[in-house]
Design brief:
This is BTAD domain-containing putative transcriptional regulator. The chain is an alpha/beta fold and 961 residues long. Among the domains are: 153 residues, Rossmann fold (3-Layer(aba) Sandwich), CATH 3.40.50; 81 residues, no CATH class; 68 residues, Orthogonal Bundle (Arc Repressor Mutant, subunit A); 103 residues, Tetratricopeptide repeat domain (Serine Threonine Protein Phosphatase 5, Tetratricopeptide repeat, Alpha Horseshoe), CATH 1.25.40. It is 63% helix and 7% strand. The protein contains 44 helices and 16 strands. The strands form five sheets. A six-stranded parallel β-sheet has the order 6-8-9-10-7-11, sandwiched between helices. A three-stranded antiparallel β-sheet has the order 3-5-4. A three-stranded antiparallel β-sheet has the order 12-14-13. Strand 1 and strand 2 form a beta hairpin. Helix 4 runs antiparallel to helix 5 and helix 42 runs antiparallel to helix 43. The radius of gyration is 31 Å and the shape is globular.
Length: 961
């Protein structure tokens, strides 16, 4: 039976979205948490307004209830309050509690497997943190915290049952994540040690005990308790009984995988004309210096436009902490996404960022525990968003800006930032417009300050207008500001906290700008470029409704906006345009075609399109790209250069976040075909840049959209892309399953493309079956005249058979198609073929030609792959120093992109080169890191190769002894 309502994660109704307004969500959550029970009005008011209800709260609450009844059935008015008539099992939290109680009863009856399944079913109801998007600290304290505690206890109890069933190896990963998120839970450490011991990984079990003991002593000043000590003693007793360890030496453990990095400085530039704020600056400096032995968390709060961000950045610019300064703009972003950026800034490779929020929090705390950092968290929404982002190092300083005082943020000090006083406001106006002009018209300056309400944002905009209009007098601007119907037009301070101010500003805009704002209100992306609406967005930026984010990597100016403005724009599009659907439908064609064009730069002659040319912009005729291999350059009859291809790739990269968000926008608006097509168009970008999280997310939405549209081919295309993703992650079984699911949906050429990919999946296990698949696909492509498919099939066959002729033929075909990236892959296969045959000069020639193409295109990850092959060639030529250097260069890129499998391969090459140089210690270090990468990926083949090198290192070390 499916639950109808969900609070174990973001609030959900019938598997869909929850009510939009935050207070509606809080009200519904309060009723669901007390399903079929009366909830008094007083309690609801306290919950909805976090114990600070306004005088009109009761009447407003009735309005909220009325609005909720349009979305949810069963809300009844009862004496003194309200209740919702739903069965407890229809709400996931109540069902969770029932299932946990049932599992415990079954366990007491001795039915271990059934009890484990019961706990598993209960835990499967969780979709994230309880009440994740409910903005009520009262609800979280009263219900969220107990539910989270029960969840952790149930998880520990289920794992204990799994251990009784001999499933220790299966639960190690889950337990590592648990202790990472909750390092002070001794019982979780106990289960991890027991699981590792049961799995035969005794050295890791002993290492886990040392980690647990260090954590408890460091954090609490306590030695491990009896249960943890007993688990440790059992492992030691087993070691003593066997008389030896696991033979792995230093290879059995895990390093952190993160190397120390230099001081970071990600602060935005300070404002040159910053004025005043001496009191708050002194408070920040004084408070920070008082607590050098503990982390300090300071909150600057106040109304929009009061200059919180400017104060935080200005203060931070004058502070120097030894390990650097981090900056994150929060807004509506979930803490998991922000943590991903912060972890990368701290040196964590993309692929090493854990998928779950709890694991990311654990890793972030570990990386900051011994550093003194300054972290600026700008525009925080609530306490739940900030808590996971706080550094833990003694002496670290966090500056948080928010509209709220974040009263529930433990151990934090808050400072309410108001408007400027008269002297500060005049100084700010003079700093922007020019002090001479302000001194020349002091009365007009005072009037401007008064009409701006002493608000820094408004004053800055007024000063900027004067600076851009040297012919204006201050009196002229004061006169324009005097008409309150135009004041927000003049000041462009549309980002105020009061809705009436936003409405006044909106009504004062010309029709064209109002339509633009409504059009942007249909989007959920955090930033965008003008091409999206095909219009200049600068008028909205000048109106204060948008903010310029500067130039992106494609050279476009990007704009973002405050969340309140976005919400207001979304309301306007809903009320005046009937919702985002019509706006998105009008722009879908442009977005899809622009993305398809950019996709063609990554994958010319898109499979199934029949196209064999690249169509660059501003050209009337299509042109083929041909390769001048002798010169090592690409030429074209009419001047097309790889610069255009590189620029299109940069455009896709710059627009990635926008396009990912737009896939979801299309789907929510019911534009299912646009949603699945956009998801499909983005797959080469994700593959080239190893953006696996985005690839997973858009593929899931795209598949739902294709199925909702009843588009079988679209579903097959997305499944094919999903298989490519699984294959890139080394999950061959999942890749094969996706391809088998796609097979019955299509026929002809698309069926042949799926057959080709099945062959690629099978190649490692069954080369004969893989070859049959490649031959079948090649026959279909040749009969249909699909030149792209033929090129791919020839390359697959050539690589499998080690047939130079097939690879050379595929190379020529890619060149004829104008596909330098396809040609580069064929060259890499040729390089590997020549290397295997000990034809080192030919191998080097092919690898270097591949490298030149990658560099011209700006494809850093494929460039690193070519460097790694060159390292292997150098080692085969007997030049281990050069091999190690090239492999380290490749490793740096793999690590920055999070490509853990390739990083492991690079480490193996480094280890081999170290052995050639008789550097046993260097070989041990490299192979240990490689083993950690392969173990984390579950790559048995990589682990086997690493173990072979480890044994060789042990043998040589033994000879020395």
């Amino acid at each position: 039976m499916n639950v109808r309502f969900g609070v174990l994660g973001p609030l959900r109704i019938d598997g869909g979205q929850a009510p939009g307004p935050a207070k509606h969500r809080t009200l519904l959550a309060a009723l669901l948490l007390s399903a079929r029970e009366r909830v008094p009005v007083e309690r609801l008011m306290s919950v909805v307004w976090d114990d600070r209800p306004p005088a009109s709260a009761e009447s407003v609450l009735r309005v909220y209830v009325s609005a909720l009844r349009k979305v949810v059935d069963g809300i009844r008015t009862v004496p003194g309050g309200y209740l919702i008539e739903v069965e407890p099992d229809d709400v996931d939290c109540h069902r969770f509690e029932r299932l946990v109680a049932g599992a415990r009863r079954v366990r007491a009856a001795g039915q271990v497997a059934e009890a484990a399944d019961g706990f598993r079913a209960a835990l499967g109801l969780w979709r994230g943190q309880a009440l994740a998007d409910v903005e009520s600290s009262m609800l979280r304290r009263a219900h969220g915290v107990p539910l989270e505690e029960l969840r952790l206890t149930a998880l520990e109890e289920r794992v204990q049952l799994d251990l009784r069933l001999g499933r220790g190896a299966e639960v190690v990963g889950e337990l590592r994540a648990l202790v990472g998120a909750h390092p002070l839970r001794e019982r979780a450490w106990v289960r991890l040690i027991e699981a590792l011991h049961q799995a035969g990984r005794r050295s890791e079990a002993l290492g886990a005990y040392q980690d647990a003991r260090w954590t408890l002593v460091e954090e609490l000043g306590l030695e491990p308790g009896a249960e943890l000590t007993e688990a440790h003693q059992k492992v030691l007793a087993d070691e003593a009984h066997r008389g030896y360890g696991d033979g792995s030496g230093t290879f059995g453990g895990y390093g952190t995988g993160h190397q120390p990095i230099g001081p970071i400085d990600e602060l935005p530039p300070d404002i040159s004309d910053f004025a005043g704020r001496r009191a708050v600056l002194d408070w920040i400096i004084g408070t920070a210096s008082e607590h050098a032995s503990a982390p300090v968390h300071l909150v600057l709060h106040g109304p929009p436009g009061c200059g919180k961000s400017a104060v935080a950045v200005h203060a931070a610019s004058g502070l120097r902490l030894p390990d650097g300064r981090l900056y994150a703009s929060l807004g509506p972003r979930p803490p998991g996404a922000v943590l991903e950026d912060l972890l990368r800034s701290l040196g964590c490779p993309e692929g090493a960022v854990p998928p779950g929020l709890d694991e990311r929090v654990r890793l972030y705390r570990s990386l900051t525990a011994r550093r003194r950092l300054l972290v600026v968290l700008d525009d925080a929404a609530d306490e739940a968003q900030v808590r996971p982002l706080l550094p833990t190092g003694p002496g670290s300083l966090t500056l948080v800006t928010s509209r709220s005082p974040l009263a529930g943020l433990e151990a934090a000090r808050a400072y309410e930032l108001g408007v400027l006083d008269q002297d500060e406001a005049v100084a700010l106006l003079g700093g922007v417009a020019g002090h001479e002009r302000v001194r020349a018209e002091p009365e007009a300056a005072a009037r401007i300050v008064h009409l701006c309400g002493h608000l820094p944002l408004a004053l800055r905009i007024a000063g900027s207008r004067l600076a851009r209009k040297p012919g204006w007098t201050l009196d002229h601007l004061a006169g324009r500001l005097g008409d309150e119907r135009r004041r927000l037009d003049e000041l462009s301070a549309g980002d105020l906290a009061v809705r009436g101010s936003l409405a006044l500003g909106y009504r004062g805009l010309p029709d064209r700008e109002r339509r633009l704002l409504r059009g942007l209100g249909a989007l959920s992306a955090p930033d965008f470029a003008p091409w999206v609406l095909g219009a200049d967005l600068e008028p909205l930026a000048e109106a204060g409704l948008l903010q310029s984010r500067g130039l992106d990597e494609a050279g476009q100016e990007r704009y973002g906006w405050h969340d309140l403005t976005r919400l207001y724009a979304a309301e306007r599009v809903a009320e005046e345009d009937g919702g985002p659907g019509m706006v998105l439908a009008a722009r879908a064609g442009t977005i899809l075609e622009r993305t398809r064009q950019a996709r063609a730069s990554l994958l010319p002659a898109e499979p199934g399109s029949g196209r064999t040319e690249v169509h660059p912009p501003d050209q009337d005729e299509p042109h083929r790209i041909e390769a001048g291999w002798g010169s090592g350059t690409w030429t074209r009859g009419h001047g097309l250069e790889t610069g255009w291809l590189r620029q299109e790739a940069r455009w896709l990269s710059a627009e990635r976040r926008f396009l990912v968000a737009t896939v979801g926008d299309f789907y929510r608006a019911g534009l299912y075909e646009a949603a699945w097509r956009l998801a499909f168009y983005l797959t080469p970008l994700f593959e080239l840049g190893a953006h696996h999280d985005d690839w997973h997310a858009t593929t899931a939405v795209g598949l739902d959209a294709a199925r909702a549209a009843g588009h079988r081919q679209g579903e097959a295309l997305l499944l094919r892309g999903l298989a490519d993703l699984h294959r890139a992650e080394g999950r061959t079984e999942a890749a094969a399953a996706a391809l088998r699911a796609a097979q019955p949906l299509v026929e002809g050429l698309e069926s042949a493309r799926i057959t080709l990919r099945l062959g690629l999946v099978q190649a490692r296990r069954d080369s004969w079956e893989a070859e049959r698949a490649f031959v079948r696909a090649l026959q279909v492509f040749e009969e249909a005249g699909d030149r792209r498919g033929r090129s791919d099939a020839l390359r697959a066959l050539g690589a499998l058979r080690q047939d130079e002729g097939s690879l050379q033929e595929s190379l020529a075909a890619y060149q004829d198609l104008g596909d330098p990236r396809g040609a580069a892959e064929a060259l890499l296969d040729l390089a590997r073929l020549h290397l295997a045959a000990h034809r080192h000069p030919q191998a080097r020639d092919c690898a270097e030609r591949r490298l030149r193409i990658n560099r011209r295109l700006g494809d850093r990850l494929p460039e690193a792959v070519a460097s790694l092959v060159l390292a292997e060639i150098a080692r085969a030529e007997g030049v281990p120093e050069a091999a190690a250097g090239a492999a380290r260069e490749a490793l740096e890129t793999f690590t920055s992109y999070g490509d853990r499998r390739s990083a492991g391969q690079a480490l193996l090459v480094i280890a081999q080169a170290a052995l050639d140089l008789d550097d046993i210690a260097g070989a041990v270090e490299a192979v240990t890191r490689a083993m950690g990468e392969f173990d984390g990926l579950g790559d048995e083949q990589g682990k086997a190769e690493a173990e072979r090198l480890a044994q060789e290192a042990r043998r040589r070390r033994g000879q020395r002894i």
